[in-house]
Design a protein that fits this description.
The protein is about 30% helix and about 15% strand. The chain is α/β, with parallel strands linked by helices.
Length: about 400
C-alpha cells in the first residue's frame, strides 16, 4: 500500500453503522452485512442508488481448516453490492494484512480519481463454530513444515516470540501489560455494541488468566466474534451537503517485510525497523507529526502491539513503552493520558480488525461520541495489525 494518497484531506467519512458483536450471531454474516451497510448509507443521508463504490478487505483471519465462503464466513465487496441491489462503478478488495487502512486508501484514491462518488467501506468478521484454529491436517507442507512440527503454529506463537524478545531486551515485566488490557476493557465496557459492554476487568483478573503461549496470556488476545461495521466516504465537496460533520482523511501509510523469511517469524528488529518506516511514511503523507495527534488509536489484536506502535510512531522512545504504560501514560480518563485505547480497541470490543480504531476516530472527530465525547479531539490516528505488516490512517476534523 502506498504511503501517499491522491488527495489528502479531499475525501471524508460521512456516515457509519456497527452491528452488535456476539461470539456467534443468531443471523448469517451476510445478513448482518446487508443490514449494517443499509444503516450506514442511511446514516450518511444517502440511498443505495447513490453508492457507486464498494471496497473491503475480506480476509477471513482463522488459520484453521474453516472454509472461506462469501456471504457466510466473509463478505466481499462484490457480494455486498449485489445483495444491496447496487449498480457500482467501482468495486475493489484490499489483499494485504492491514485490511482497513488498505481499504480506506483504495476508497480515497477511487473518489479522487473520479472512479466513484460515494464509496462504502466495510469489514465483516466471523467466528467459526468449534476450535478457532482447528485442523485435521496430518502433515505440514510449504513453509509450515519448518515450524509446525516444533509447535510454532499460528499468530499467538508469532507474537509471543516478538513479545518475549521485547521483555528480555528492555527489562519489561509481564505484569506491566495488565495496564494495557485493563485500559482497553475499561473503555470497551462503556460501548453499547461491544462484546465486553459492562464487563471491565482488574489487573488481578489479567494476571490470573491462563498462559496460552508464554508470555502471552488468554487476556492478551482479542476475542473472535461475529460482527460488521461500515463507513461511507465521499469527496469533501459533497460531504458539505450531508447531515453529519465530515471527518477528513489526511494521510495513510502501509508496510510489508523488507527481507525474506518464514511468514510466522517476526523478529523484533523487523517490527522496529519497518515500523519506523511506516511511521515516517505516515507523517510525510499527512504533513504532521506525533505531537499533532490528539487521538492515537493503536491496534491491540494482541496487547504487545500497543508497545510496538507507541514506539514505531514516535510516541515513546525505543524500549520505553512498557514504562510509559505502567506509569499511567495511556489512561484515557487522565488529562495527561494519551488515549490510545479510548475506543476500547480489539481487546475491549472483540476481533474487528481495526474497526474500533477507525470508528473511535470518526465518532470523536465528528462530535458523535455522545457521553464519551473528548472535546479537544481534532486529529486522530487509527493503526491496524503490526507496524511492520499493517498500516495506519490519519483523520482530521478540519482540512489542513
Amino acid at each position: 500500500m502506498s504511503g501517499r494518497l491522491r488527495a489528502g484531506n479531499q475525501v471524508a467519512v460521512v456516515g457509519y453503522a456497527h452491528s452488535a458483536l456476539a461470539r456467534h450471531a443468531a443471523r448469517p454474516l451476510g445478513t448482518l452485512a446487508v443490514d449494517t451497510a443499509r444503516a450506514a448509507i442511511a446514516d450518511a443521508g444517502l440511498t443505495v442508488a447513490q453508492i457507486d463504490g464498494f471496497v473491503t478487505g475480506a480476509r477471513f483471519p482463522t488459520v484453521g481448516d474453516h472454509p472461506a465462503t462469501d456471504g457466510v464466513t466473509m463478505v466481499s465487496s462484490a457480494w455486498l453490492a449485489a445483495r444491496l441491489g447496487a449498480r457500482p462503478r467501482h468495486v475493489a478488495g484490499f489483499q494485504g494484512t492491514g485490511q482497513l487502512p488498505g481499504s480506506v486508501a483504495l476508497a480515497v484514491n477511487a473518489i479522487a480519481a473520479g472512479a466513484a462518488d460515494h464509496v462504502l467501506v466495510h469489514r465483516a468478521l466471523h467466528n467459526p463454530a468449534g476450535a478457532y484454529h482447528a485442523s485435521d491436517a496430518h502433515e505440514a507442507s510449504g513453509a509450515r513444515q519448518w515450524t509446525m512440527p516444533q509447535g510454532f503454529f499460528g499468530p499467538v506463537a508469532t507474537i509471543a516470540l516478538a513479545y518475549n524478545e521485547y521483555l528480555q531486551k528492555y527489562g519489561a515485566s509481564r505484569e506491566s501489560m495488565a495496564a494495557v488490557v485493563v485500559e482497553a476493557r475499561k473503555n470497551g465496557a462503556r460501548i453499547p455494541w461491544s462484546y465486553w459492554h459492562g464487563k471491565p476487568l482488574t489487573a488481578g483478573d489479567y494476571l490470573a488468566a491462563p498462559m496460552i503461549n508464554d508470555p502471552i496470556r488468554r487476556l492478551d488476545c482479542d476475542l473472535p466474534v461475529d460482527g460488521v461495521a461500515a463507513f461511507v466516504l465521499t469527496s469533501a465537496r459533497r460531504a458539505a451537503d450531508l447531515p453529519h460533520r465530515p471527518v477528513y482523511i489526511a494521510g495513510c501509510a502501509g508496510a510489508g517485510p523488507t527481507r525474506p523469511g518464514l511468514a510466522l517469524h517476526w523478529p523484533l528488529d523487523d517490527i522496529r525497523t519497518v515500523g519506523a518506516e511506516t511511521g515516517r511514511r505516515l507523517w510525510e503523507s499527512a504533513g504532521i507529526g506525533p505531537a499533532d495527534v490528539d487521538l492515537p488509536q493503536l491496534y491491540d489484536g494482541f496487547s504487545p502491539f500497543v508497545y510496538f506502535w507507541l514506539e514505531a510512531l514516535g510516541f515513546c522512545p525505543e524500549g520505553e513503552a512498557h514504562r510509559f504504560v505502567q506509569a499511567g501514560g495511556i489512561d484515557s480518563d487522565s488529562p495527561k493520558g494519551l488515549p490510545v485505547l479510548s475506543g476500547g480497541g480489539a481487546l475491549g470490543n472483540g476481533r474487528m480488525h481495526g474497526i474500533p480504531q477507525m470508528l473511535e476516530c470518526y465518532l470523536q472527530l465528528s462530535g458523535r461520541a455522545a457521553g464519551r465525547q473528548r472535546e479537544q479531539a481534532r486529529v486522530g490516528l487509527a493503526a491496524h495489525a503490526s507496524p511492520h505488516l499493517g498500516g495506519a490512517v490519519v483523520y482530521s476534523a478540519e482540512q489542513f
